[in-house]
Amino acid sequence: MAEVHHFTHGAFNPIVSFLMAFLGSLLGLACTVRARESRTRGRRARWLVIAAFAIGGTGIWLMHFMAMLGFDVPASPVRYDIGLTLASAAMAVGTVGFGLFVVGFGPRTVRRTLTGGVFTGAGVVAMHYTGMRGMRVAGVIHYDPALVTASCLIAVVAATVALWFTVSIKGWGPIIAAATIMGIAVTGMHYTGMAAMSVELWNDGRAHVEGLSPYTLLIPITLMAAAALIGMAFSGLQAMTQEEFSAGALTLPPTPHGTHAEATWSMRETDPVIPPAPAVDRLATSSAAAAATAGANRART
Fold this sequence. Notes:
With about 300 residues, the chain is mainly alpha-helical. It has helices at about 10-35, 40-70, 80-105, 110-135, 145-170, 170-195, 215-245, 280-300; strands at about 80, 135, 140-145, 195-200, 250-255, 260-265. The strands form 3 sheets. A two-stranded antiparallel sheet has the order 1-2. Strands 3-4 form a two-stranded antiparallel sheet. Strand 5 and strand 6 form a beta hairpin.
C-alpha cells in the first residue's frame, strides 16, 4: 500500500475545515429556526432553501474540499473529476434540503426529527463518498468497511441531535451548541472516512492521472462559495424585511380598559394631522368673544 498524508499542511486544513462546517451549520440552523417561526408556507420554504445551501454547500461540501487540500499521495499525483465533484455538491444540498423540509413543515415529532436527521446525515455521507469517487490517483482506492460504517453513524447521529436542538429549544445558545456539534461531526466524519481509505498503486509503472489538480479548482470554488454566501445573505435580509413589513406592528399606549391598541404599519400616504391650537390662543379667542358679546348687550340697552 502507498503512503498517504492527510495533514500535508499541518493543522491548517482541519482547523479551516471545522470553521467552514461550523459557520455553514450556524447559518443554516439559524435559518431553520427562522423558518419554523414563519407564518406562511412560502416564506418558510424560502428560509429552508437558504438553510440547505448554507449547511449542504458551505458546511459540508466546502468543508470537504478544504480538508482535501491537505490530502496527498507522495508516490502519485492527485486529480479530481469535475463532473463527480460538482455532483457531490448538488447531492449535499439536495439531501440536506429534503431533511430540513421534513423537519421544517408539520408538527414537531420524534419521527420527523429522526427522518430529517437520517436524510441530513445521508447527505453528508453521500457527498463525501461521491467526492472521493471523483478523486483520481495512480492506483486503486480501498476502504475499511468498519471505519466506513463508523463514519456513516457519526454523520446520522450528529445531524439528528443538531436538528433536535434546533426544533426543540429556542435561543442562540442551543443554535450555537447545535452548530458546534454539526461542525465537529462533519469534520470528524470526513477524517474517519479518510482513515478508512488506502491506496494500492499500479504495478505497471503508469503515472499519468486524468482530471484537474485541486489547486486548479481552488480559485473558481472560492469565487463560487463567496457568490453563494453573498446571495444567501441578501436573500435572508430580503426575507426578513418582507416579514417585518408584513407582520410588524406599532404598539400604542394602553387604553382605559388596560389593553394595548395596535396600528399596522402602512406604506400608503395619509393626510397630514393638524395639531390643536395652543392653550394661550384658545384663551385669547374666548376673551375676545366674551368682550364682543358684552359690547353688543350694552348697545341694545
